[in-house]
Design brief:
The complex is a heterodimer of chains A (550) and B (177).
Chain A lengths: L6 H36 L9 H36 L5 H23 L17 H32 L6 H32 L8 H29 L1 H4 L7 H14 L16 H35 L4 H7 L6 H23 L5 H4 L3 H31 L6 H27 L15 H4 L2 H31 L29 H25 L12
Chain B lengths: L4 H28 L14 H4 L9 E4 L5 E8 L2 E3 L2 E5 L4 E7 L4 E5 L5 E4 L5 E5 L4 E7 L11 E7 L8 E2 L11
Parallel strand pairs in B: 1-11, 2-5, 4-10
Antiparallel strand pairs in B: 1-2, 2-3, 5-8, 6-7, 6-9, 9-10
The chains are: A mainly alpha (550), B alpha/beta (177).
Chain lengths: 550, 177
């Protein structure tokens, strides 16, 4: 229920949302430029300033800016939009601005250390490789800033719930609250790693660090991190896409189940990133694999619901026959086409993910180029492309400016899709041929085994070119709109209607009780991590001093 | 909760498929020991210790009293020690690895032989090879020379192979857990 707000508050709320979008767009632009450099470097093309040092710096910058800055700021901005729509305002506006600035100062610190070559440690920053202390402190500030957002989202969700008595909150708010709770649980791992290990060690307060403990804490955080990215994209697919495509959401109650299941199952899976690691027993790895298979379930349920919703839309638009409804979807609307193309790529990425999670198969693909092929289809397509489409829809509504350069926006998702197919499919294949990821050069001094990678690697560099053009179009549309878009009245935000809503509406059900599911998540996480961590701490651990080989 | 019939069928279907995925892998693990390398053993990563500790030194190929083939290797920025190895074909070979500096990734290209190599820990796995020449790469970013970190593995027919040396049997260290 909208509340009449003083105009100043309304402006400040819009500015807060747009500030998040600005940071996300700029981080995305810089990160895309870094990616372009890597693609050319991998294809062995001569480039001024090309050097191994520059290459690994750019890999670090690309990872941190894309995976941690672009995503987090966009997700926070989107969360504020959803909470504002739900409750009529953004709570604790001054505090939220403070948290925004805190996170931005963190980004500046981390960015400074990366671009001055003092932190080429990649976005996984495994010790005992040691970055400048400000790299770790900056990232910690980003996380602390995001905790302010978490508190805000949970408070908004609670307020919306009490406003509605026995009616559930909107699915968008439900998803956002589940994601905030997931993030609260997940960031405990990286916060512990930063505060108890990396920061004191990088400042020289302690001499040694246990790299295995760091890896366990990092991946405790690192996998739910990917769900933190994916859930907002799913929320858009459930709540915005059916409406934009001209249809209705097929089964809303299952959507509520899906987000609750993600909250429970996203975290106790981290060891599937560490299948190849020493120091963790095979049985605990097996248990994490079980959980990983379980967390695939809500994604597969989503696949059905979203396809069914799209079929409803296609048929309402006059599509006939078994597949005719697909052609009648509005492929020229970039909000829709970006989500549709993102899903097509995610289909492939998701199957690849099951291969990664498969214990024995993992030893064939671990840390090969298969892996970055995989996550460019997931976070780089399902998430990033959906967010770009969402931005085309969101920014005009919040800024009160019309979308500029609409033609570029229309073709941009297709450039991204083509680029991703050319980039990611060949890297999957070279990965199966054993090409390690993150190599400045792939030649190994002319080793015969390395020749087979050459052609496909050049092909994926061509994909990088398409992706860069797509990224450039996105940034141009955003800057054009934000800086020079024709002013109009800000439009309202509406979510998709449910196809089969019972007369009188839905009632609060078991899947709406996110507090309870959060408690279940804590228990599952304790089962998955308490014993292996306890066992680990019983070992005679020697620790390592820091190294800076970059 | 009222769920559409087709969606119900789909949910059961994917549930069964996922259970099948897990079941096959769990079965392979239990019945034929196809677990990933999960050895639990610690070591002081100080180079002076690593170069003398009999669990990982001297580096190279050896054969114990039972005839089992062992490879001891150390990863350091930016090389594998030793950088050339010859092992017998179709024979179980047990690798023992550690690092004296940062984390490395030991990967024998186009085989399933790989493990993360973490300073302070000993990685161990056993595998067999077909005859041929293999590239050993580092697949965990370890610094500015990461792309140059490699070694050569030659696999020869077992009949024409002899060990660099015969080592005293290593004391068996059971996994801590």
């Amino acid at each position: 229920m909208p509340i009449d707000l003083p105009a100043r508050t309304d402006t400040s709320e819009r500015r807060l949302i747009l500030a998040h979008v600005w940071v996300a767009v700029l981080a995305f632009g810089v990160a895309a430029a870094m990616a372009m450099m890597q693609a050319i470097s991998r294809a062995n093309l001569a480039l001024p300033y090309r050097s191994a040092r520059m290459y690994y710096m750019s890999v670090t910058a690309h990872g941190v800016l894309m995976a941690l800055v672009f995503t987090t700021f966009f997700i926070m901005g989107l969360g504020y939009v959803i909470a504002r729509k739900e409750t009529g305002r953004i709570r604790w506006l001054g505090f939220s601005w403070g948290m925004f600035w805190l996170a931005l100062v963190g980004v500046a610190m981390t960015g400074y250390t990366i671009f001055t070559f003092q932190a080429s440690v990649l976005y996984t920053f495994y010790p005992p490789m040691q970055a400048h202390p400000l790299f770790y402190i900056g990232l910690t500030l980003v996380v602390v800033g995001s905790w302010g957002w978490v508190a805000n989202m949970i408070a908004s969700w609670r307020a919306a719930r009490s406003q509605r008595a026995d009616r559930p909150v909107s699915l968008a708010m439900h998803a956002t609250a589940a994601n905030a709770m997931l993030w609260a649980l997940a960031t405990i791992g990286v916060a512990a790693e930063m505060l108890f290990q990396l920061i004191p060690w990088s400042l020289g307060w302690v001499d040694r660090i246990d790299p295995m403990l760091s890896r366990m804490l990092f991946w405790y955080f690192g996998h739910p991190l990917v769900y933190f990215w994916v859930l907002p994209a799913y929320a858009i697919w459930y709540t915005l896409l059916p409406k934009e495509a001209g249809g209705k959401l097929f089964s809303e109650p299952l959507g509520r189940m899906v987000f609750a299941l993600f909250l429970v199952l996203s975290t106790p899976v981290g060891f599937h990133h560490q299948f190849m690691d020493p120091g963790i027993s095979a049985n605990w790895k097996l248990f994490h694999m079980l959980n990983t298979m379980a967390v695939t379930f809500p994604s597969l349920v989503t696949a059905f619901t979203i396809c069914a919703s799209l079929e409803v839309a296609g048929r309402l638009r006059g599509g006939k026959g078994l597949f005719g409804w697909i052609a009648s979807l509005p492929w020229g609307n970039p909000v829709v086409s970006s989500a549709l193309l993102a899903m097509l790529l995610f289909l492939v990425g998701g199957f690849g993910g099951v291969v990664n999670a498969a214990y024995a198969l993992n030893s064939v693909v671990h840390n090969t180029s298969w892996i970055h092929g995989h996550f460019h289809l997931t976070v780089g397509s399902a998430v990033a492309l959906t967010f770009m489409g969402t931005a085309y829809w969101l920014v005009p509504r919040i800024s009160g400016r019309q979308l500029e350069l609409g033609l570029l926006a229309k073709i941009q998702p297709y450039f991204w899709f083509t680029g991703m197919v050319l980039f990611a499919f060949p890297t999957h294949i070279t990965g199966l041929m054993g090409l390690p990821r993150r190599l400045f050069e792939t030649g190994y001094n002319g080793a015969p085994q390395a020749h087979v990678w050459e052609r496909l690697t050049s092909l994926s560099a061509l994909g990088g070119l398409f992706l860069f053009v797509g990224a450039l179009f996105f940034v141009m549309v955003m800057l054009g709109t934000l800086l020079a878009g024709k002013k109009t009245a800000p439009a309202d935000i509406e979510w998709a209607e449910s196809l089969s809503e019972p007369a009188g509406g839905y009632r609060v059900g078991i899947w709406d009780r996110l507090g309870m599911w959060w408690a279940v998540a804590v228990v599952v996480v304790l089962i998955a991590y308490a014993i292996p961590l306890w066992n680990h701490l019983q070992l005679e651990r020697f620790g390592s001093p820091g190294f800076k080989p970059f | 909760m009222n769920v559409d019939l087709y969606e119900r069928i789909w949910m059961w279907g994917v549930g069964i498929v996922l259970a099948g995925f897990f079941g096959t892998m769990a079965f392979a693990t239990i019945s034929s020991g196809m677990a990933p390398p999960s050895h639990i053993e610690t070591i002081d990563p100080n180079p002076a210790t690593v170069m003398t500790d009999p669990r990982v030194a001297p580096q190279g190929v050896s054969q114990d009293a039972d005839g089992h083939v062992h490879v001891r290797m150390v990863g350091l920025t930016f090389a594998w020690l030793p950088n050339e190895l010859t092992v017998p074909a179709n024979t179980p070979v047990t690798f023992h690895l550690t690092s004296t500096d940062v984390v490395h990734g030991f990967e024998i290209v186009r085989t399933n032989g790989q493990t993360t190599v973490v300073p302070g820990y000993i990685s161990q796995f056993t595998t067999t090879f077909d005859p041929g020449e293999y590239l050993i790469a580092c697949n965990e970013y370890c610094g500015v020379g990461h792309q140059t970190m490699s070694a050569k593995l030659t696999v020869v027919p077992a009949a024409s192979w002899t060990a660099d040396r015969v080592a005293a049997p290593t004391p068996e260290v059971a996994d801590a857990h």
